[in-house]
Amino acid sequence: MNILTPFQKRKTARVDSEIFSVSRRDFLKTSGLLTGGLILGVSFFSCDSKGKKLATLAPNVYLSVASDGKVTIVAHRSEMGQGIRTSLPLIIADEMGADWNKVEIIQAEGDEKKYGNQNTDGSFSVRMFYKPMREAGAIVRLLLLRAAAKEWQIDVTKLDTQNGQVIQLGSSRKKDFGDLVQTALSLPVPKVSEIKLKDRQHFNMIGKETPIIDLHDIVTGKAVFGIDAIVEGMKIAVIKRCPVVGGSVKSVNDRKALAVPGVVKVITIKGAGLPATLSRPLSGVAVIAENTWAAIKARDLLEVEWELGANASYNSAIQIEELKQVVGQEGTLRRKRGDFDAAKANAKKVIEHTYIAPYLAHATIEPPCALAIVTNGSCEIWACTQNPQGARDAVAKELGVAAEKVKMNVTLLGGGFGRKSKPDFILEAAILAKESGLPIKVQWTREDDIRHDYYHAMSVQRIVATIDSQNKLSGWAHHIANPSISATEDQAVVQPSDGELMLGASDFPYNVPAINIATHDAKAHLRIGWLRSVRNIPQVFAAATMLDEIAEARGLDAVANALELLGEDRHITFEQELIKTTYPNYGEKIEDYPWETSRMKKVIERVAKESGWGKSMPAGSALGFAAHKSFLTYVACVVEVKVSQDKKISIPNVYYAVDCGLAVNVDRIKSQFEGGAQFSASFALKSAITVKNGEVEQSNFDGYQIIRMPDSPKQIHVYILDSDAKPTGVGEPPVPPFTPALCNAIYAATGKRIYTLPIDLTV
Amino acid sequence: MAKYSILVNGKKHDVDVMEDMPLLWVLRDIIGLKGTKFGCGKALCGACTVHLNDTAIRSCSFPISAIGYGKVTTIEGLSEAGDHPVQEAWEKFVVPQCGYCQTGQIMNAAALLKKNAKPSEQEIEQAMQGNLCRCGTYNRIKAAILEAAGTPVTAG
What is the CATH number for B110? Predict the structure, then answer.
């Protein structure tokens, strides 16, 4: 099953490789436009709005140029607020010299063979597709330049592209792209080896601020999300799911439900049981109705007797108490440097604390929803999915058809954060459409969403830090217990995977002579998934608040402590210290994306400078610091907190310095950091999922709270370091350092250390 | 089931629906206006905000039977060409990320400015606290409202 976790290696993309040339190959099968072994630039003919036939140049699957000058760029990654429908197309447009106002962006359906990887998570998109997008644009640019050179009978080096035209340097001669299409169609498509990418000083869009392309549609209510997809004859399904993971339907009384006006039928879904899996729906009973309200009302009238199964006795509070004991033990050593026991024995001071963080739900404001039509062994879906290819494969498997029989249309996502990587809600639509013979839109309610998520796992950790007689940090032991994502597929898994451990634990970068990273058993009783920045959330909360405590114990300020512990400029490697554990490096080779202490030091120094680190603050106010590299992006954060007499927390300022390599769309980098701080503030101050007798106790935004405007961080200042390094993603990296920086600020303001999330200063 | 005649964006719609059907589902499922969003169904998130006679209401928790002769305005009817000052300010500050909650945010902000043409930052925070944004666009929302109110906005 193609359900990759956010830190697994993906198929890399090469724009001139087979997988990106399917449309061309398909065309060649029928057109015979193959001369001398060279592939020509034509792919298809389209029509303009008046029905006039247009010649279209489409040398790869990502873009085409029509003879009317329109440039069409395919957005193949899912848009969920990170701005990727704008940021990847603008790379192409900039490289080819297109007129952005004449660019139309269309959303690709899920098709890995055609587009390469489309699984939109792990902050992968810009990192993985920056180069292929530039190459795609550069190939078309060169083709158009050659077309003009042929027409004008001059050397190609005397030409350039600008605003959708080829121009002759030092002359007023120019020609629109569209007018060059016919000539370009007679030329061979350049190979990647023939192109020369633009120098940075010639970028018009990369490194600048481009508004998102869907802006006007969003503010006028025209943008189409998953919930907005409609087809004729569509019915709405709302499902009552087993309240305990792994349970099943014993019996159903649907008499009252069927009496609700507009109800069409009731269908029982046989779900996954245990393991719950990342790719099957839960067991439940669906009401199919003419409209959403009838379906919701009737669903609430269903009388279902459940076989609750093994998880019915699960209580999260009890498991947390058990794990507090468990992390006090030795555990399974996963990383070892030096002799921690000796460091502890010789320590002048030992600091030891246990850190608790709760389960979290994604709570996208658009609840999961999907529309499916199943006819004669084929299926068409419209869904707000982060992973259209994985969903397509899962639907094909569920329906017993080939993936080619499933067409997966991707809408805008009203938030994703990892929830919409899982295809369970899409499978529900496909199952019900097949069973009923009707087009079915499955609509999750907020209660469904909060009670039946793939949760971010709760966490119990213990960290022991030792300081020697030279006032050096001599030892670091980090003990970790949390239900693993892997347990959702395989219940036998009780310890974090290498990928989970890498997120803020086994990647501890500091120069400490003795390090132990150990994991402990924790069984999963819910569906565990991944949430924006994943295990970095609890692991960096624990590690970066402990570092603040270490700095205090050493009599250093937190920034000086971090800079000293990072040590000399070098590339850090982890593999040699790992025990039966790998270091996945977010799916990239460590040679390609090394851990560079110099880059981390620069973001720390920058954030210290911009925040006025060290300045005196009024009583009740303070700054707190944390820094963390995640998803290959370096981030340092300073949070200013104000704690009132009645212990109310407000956050007037947040300062971020980031090194994400070359910045692509500066405005969307800033917006990801602004939003990342708010996202993290929800976990720091508001959110917790608890489980009693196997059932999630929260069900809506009253019980499961997220940050609202009055409590939200006020000014979020983002400083992007100038860099020529390979671009890395920014969707997740803002999240991890915010919460520990806030906790450290609260300590500086109040003298109270935070060991449990969400923060509660009244206890 | 009962018949209702409601005025939405200046146009009369005759619908035959359950008495307790929230306005949200009348708008989305029966009339086909999709700009108003479903977020919680309990008036806790504000994604479904529309105007009833210029007052912001949560349409997910407002039964059709309570509309009476009131004038309903949705995002589709806020302006002719998407050029309401609030919408223009939203575009200027590139407020949205995923965009899902934004029509509700805009409708709530427009209703606020109708009642209070020059709200302070604190008044904005109080008025907007019922509208959740999971992407965390709150500061740009605030800046856009100040802009629409003609209050100078300092870059932050």
Answer: 1.10.150.120
Task: Count CA atoms within 13 Å of residue A335 on its CB side.
Answer: 27
Residues B55 and B103 in one domain: no
Residue of A nearest to B45 (CA): A701
CB contact under 8 Å between A712 and B140, yes or no, is no
* Bridge partners, residue A38, by sequence: A35
Nearest residue of A to residue B156, measured between CA atoms: A715
User: Structural domain of residue B68, as residue ranges?
Assistant: 2-76
Burial of A433 (0-12, 13-18, 19+ CB in 10 A): buried
Q: Based on the fold, state whether residues B47 and B98 are members of the same structural domain.
A: no
User: With 80 as the cut, is the pLDDT of residue B23 above it?
Assistant: yes
Average pLDDT over residues A390-416: 97
* Min distance B103 CA to chain A CA atoms (Å): 6
Looking at 3.20.20.450, 3.20.20.140, 3.30.450.20, 3.30.365.10, the CATH number of the domain A226-310+368-443 comes to: 3.30.365.10
Q: Residue B42 domain-assigned?
A: yes
Same domain, B95 and B117: yes
Q: What is the CATH number of domain A18-216?
A: 3.30.365.10
Beta-carbon contacts of A569 under 8 Å, excluding residues fewer than 6 positions away, are: A596, A597, A598, A601
Provide the chain B residues 52-111 that lie in CB contact (below 8 A) with chain A. 74-76, 82, 87, 90-91, 94-103, 106
pLDDT given for residue A40 in this prediction: 45
What's the mean pLDDT in A195-216?
A: 97
- The residue among A208, A220, A292 with the most chain B CBs within 10 A of its CB, best to mutate, is A220
- CATH node for A316-361+454-750: 3.30.365.10
Same-domain check for residues B63 and B103: no
Minimum CA–CA partner of B87 in chain A: A219
pLDDT one-digit tens code per residue, B52-82 = 999 999 999 999 999 999 999 999 999 999 9
Residue ranges per domain, chain A?
18-216, 226-310+368-443, 316-361+454-750
Q: Do B142 and A700 touch (CB under 8 A)?
A: no
How close B98 gets to chain A, by Cα (Å)?
A: 3
Shortest Cα distance, chain A CAs vs residue B24, angstroms: 9
CA A711 from centre of chain: 25
The total number of structural domains that make up chain B: 2
pLDDT tens column, A341-386: 999 999 999 999 999 999 999 999 999 999 999 999 999 999 999 9
Residue after which a domain boundary falls, among B23, B43, B76? B76
Question: Given an 8 Å threshold on Cβ–Cβ distance, is B125 in contact with A261?
Answer: no
Nearest CA-CA partner of A551 in A372, A263, A744, A304: A744
Q: How far apart are CA A112 and CA A134, in angstroms?
A: 20
Q: Which of B47, B125, B129 sits opposite A365 (nearest CB)?
A: B47
What is the predicted ipTM? 0.98
Two structure tokens written together for A461: 């950790």
Kindly list the residues from chain B whose CB atom is less than 8 angstroms away from the CB atom of residue A445: 41
Q: How far apart are CA A539 and CA A501, in angstroms?
A: 9
**Euclidean distance between CA atoms B44 and B48, whole angstroms:** 10
